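Q: what does this look like with flavin mononucleotide bound?
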Amino acid sequence: MDAISLLHERSSMGKLMGPPPNAEQLEAIYRAALRAPDHKELRPWRFIEFSGEGLERLGELFAEAEYREDPHVGDTALNAARKKPLRAPMVIAVIAKVTPEVPKVPKVEQVISAGCAAHAILLAAHAQGLGAMWRSGKYAFDPVVRKGLGLNEDDEVVAFIYLGTLGGRHKPIAQHDIDDFVEHWR
Ligand SMILES: Cc1cc2nc3c(=O)[nH]c(=O)nc-3n(C[C@H](O)[C@H](O)[C@H](O)COP(=O)(O)O)c2cc1C
């Protein structure tokens, strides 16, 4: 697949199954992520790769987040939270590791750089025939999850990227009209 086709045709896949990406595929994925644009070479990126029991540990954090939000939450909701990471054989948390108070590189730029890294992961996965889906949801912003993942005060969870083997067909790609989005100053 050539680069322009990849950029035009990348698509999310929510239905994912095993096996997870292999070591070679993961290396290509991380190399792509580490090419994200990066003002002043701060490298504001941290990735946590969850698989196997790691997915269950992540699910446990999600359940703890539910409990913090509502100590009267029932078992059904807690179990639903626990199961969320098990929708894929692998999840990569993309974290913006923010260096505060860098002249000319405010936090927003560092978070955007981590967002670019997340997009690169999606693209590298798609290019290799893997399925991937960027999810954040409320857990990305939850204090229990943030603490459990070891975030510093200025860090942000930018994405939980669910990765695996395609478990279904890609949906048709929405065709947007370029003129609806682009203004010309000539
Ligand atoms: C920052 C961010 C967070 C997202 N979080 C979720 C989410 O929690 N759940 C979800 O179903 N989709 C989420 N999405 C949207 C999907 O990843 C996906 O982009 C969307 O379903 C459109 O599919 P496409 O990527 O094939 O165009 C998120 C996208 C972004 C950019």
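The longest helix spans residues 107-127. The radius of gyration is 18 Å.
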